[in-house]
Design brief:
With about 250 residues, the protein is of the alpha/beta class. It is built from eleven helices and nine strands. Strands 1-2-3-4-6-9 form a six-stranded mixed β-sheet, sandwiched between helices. Strand 2, helix 1 and strand 3 form a beta-alpha-beta unit. The relative contact order is 0.16.
Amino acid sequence: MNEPSVLLERAGRLARITLNRPHRRNSFDLAMLARFEDVLHEVGRDSEVEVLVLTGAGSAFCAGTDVDELATLDAATTMHVQRRTAEVVERWYRMEQTTVTAFNGPAIGSGAVLGLAADLRVAADSCFFTFPEVTFGIPLTWSGMAILADLVGADRAKRWLLLGDRITPAEMLRHDLVTAAVPADELAAACDAVIERLLAVSPVGRSMTKRAARLAGPRFEAAANDSYLGALSVALRPAGAYPKGGKS
């Protein structure tokens, strides 16, 4: 409990970021959001780091927003937080380094969005994605529609959000959301294999490829009203706790 909620380890050209609130399934509260923002700023200035790996501590990757805290926020604070979360996803997507997500377990709502915003992704077979926000009476924010529409198309993304579908590892592979889905004890090796291939090629080539891909990438401007819609939805929903066990 005394460790930072987001860990950063650097080893030469590689840095690993670990979401570290396992007692809350690595869901983001305000303190963790601020820590993650600081980590991205810190590693973004490190010219030695070429590859960034994002994973979670414990059995879950990330359960998104800590809805217990969200239920206590007023509309103005909610709007401010929603703006920051949209910006942090876009910043993660636009990192100069090549980014890799290792989904070590379930990724829920905005937690799935954050992981999917990486350049490359691998998953343990214990991982699944689901987007329960609509069942909570709120929309998916965190630039979620921009990321999902870029990866699978707006129509399929809309269906997943409206129906709260669970996306299994087999479906992740079918829709190219991950490059591999492996047993949990093989995830580290699968991630290392990706890292090895990345570090074996020109960092300039990788960086320029990322820059070119941005021109055809997510339409973040389309998610510019996320903060307003999120704050309005939170204000309009019935008062009280979110569904038991829910993490958006």
